[in-house]
Amino acid sequence: MVSPEGIEFGADWLKMMEEKESAMRKIVLALAVVVFVCGSVFAQTPKTAASPTTREMNLLCWQEFGELVPARIRTVLLPTGSIEPHGVIPNGTDSLAPEAMARDIAERVNALIAPTLNYGMTASMKAFPGAVSMTGEVYEPFVEEILRNLAGDGFRNIIVLNGHGGNTAAVNAAATRAANASRVRILVVNWWTLADDITKSVFKQNGGHAGNNETAYIQAVFPSHIHPERYVPEMASPNPPAGAYYAVPVTSSIGLYEKGQGYPTFDPAQAKEYFRKVNDRVAELILDTIKKWDLAGVFGR
Predict the structure, then answer these.
(1) Which residues of 190-202 are buried (b: 16+ CB within 10 A; e: fewer)?
(2) DSSP secondary structure code for residue 86 in this structure
(3) How many C-beta atoms surround the C-beta of residue 277 within 10 A?
(4) What is the pLDDT at residue 38?
(5) Distance between CA 171 and CA 82 in Å, rounded?
(6) Is pLDDT of 279 > 90?
(7) Which of 52, 129, 266, 282 has the CA that lies 20 to 30 A from 72?
(8) Domain 57-292 CATH assignment equals 3.30.450.20
(9) Residue extents of the structural domains in the chain
(10) What does the radius of gyration of the chain's CA atoms come to, in whole angstroms?
(11) Distance between CA atoms of 182 and 145, rounded to whole angstroms?
């Protein structure tokens, strides 16, 4: 072959140029495919990778839930409580506290929030106006069924934020059975016991049922539903020493962990400090527990 300028090209050179041209076509085609695929992925990103519209299961539609669990969120917070008297703060304190806690820490621990189990076991306070109590024969299997269903929904870690001491034994038993049957990890947190040192640090003394600690925590969230004008110190009684005596109904809805300590303070500054420190402690426990579960490789589905 001879070029317009009179230069002669050999067959080998022509073959080399044809191969280069073919290679360039392939590169251009490959780049076009990459651009198309990337464009498609980026176009879908807002639907699949954006932040959840809410952390509350009650407010999620089933389609978004399916996109989130378990691909992006594997942990669920389940608040449990009761309806019973609490001095001059809401009867629903045992549910309101873990519910507020869940909302505050859900993003930090990358969790959804299951609907609160508001009713619990509070037979010794059933006589007080507005109290509602469930028997253990009803409550324990009910909790177990909820835990099994949450595991079936795809959650790997179930964190029970328990707000009522009377539920503890039943919740622990239900959690043990559900965890082993469904191969799911379950952590039950009794926040007031976990925060015992925080209570003593903030208030410089021990706490109590509807005492300084519980009152402060609820005051931080629902200040308009705290009624210091109804309070008198005589409303509080120290809890009896273990095995000393037992009264039904209880004589006081404010039960002090130690005699002479734990009376409500109604101090807004203490309330805010206590709320923050307790939530930080609970979030820290959850993250550490999940990290150790993962390290151990237990129920790693």
Answers:
(1) bbbeebeebbeeb
(2) B
(3) 16
(4) 46
(5) 13
(6) yes
(7) 282
(8) no
(9) 57-292
(10) 30
(11) 11
Q: How far apart are CA 57 and CA 54, in angstroms?
A: 8
User: For 117, phi and psi rounded to 5 degrees?
Assistant: -90, 95
Residue for token digits 């079936």?
152
**Closest by CA position to 147, among listed 111, 114, 104, 120:** 114
CB neighbour class for 259 (10 Å; exposed up to 12, middle 13-18, buried from 19)? exposed
User: How many CB atoms within 10 Å of residue 12?
Assistant: 8
3-state helix, strand, coil in the chain (%, to 5): 55, 15, 35
The count of C-alpha atoms lying within 13 angstroms of the C-alpha of 54, restricted to the half-sphere facing its C-beta, is: 10
What per-residue confidence (pLDDT) applies to 271? Answer: 98
Locate 298 and state its tokens: 């237990």
End-to-end alpha-carbon separation of the chain, Å? 68
Of the two residues 29 and 210, the one the predictor is more confident about is 210
How far is the C-alpha of 9 from the C-alpha of 17, rounded, in Å? 11
Would you state the pLDDT for residue 300? 80
Q: Exposed, middle or buried: residue 24 (CB in 10 Å: 0-12, 13-18, 19+)?
A: exposed
Specify whether the CB–CB gap between 164 and 120 falls below 8 A. Answer: yes
Q: In what order do the strands lie in the sheet with 254-256?
A: 208-209, 254-256, 236-238
Token digits for 289? Answer: 């527990």
Whole-model pTM: value is 0.84
- Dihedral angle sign, alpha carbons of residues 155, 157, 163, 164: positive
Q: Is 220 helix (H, G, I), strand (E, B) or coil?
A: helix
- For 71, list phi and psi in degrees, rounded to 5: -60, -40
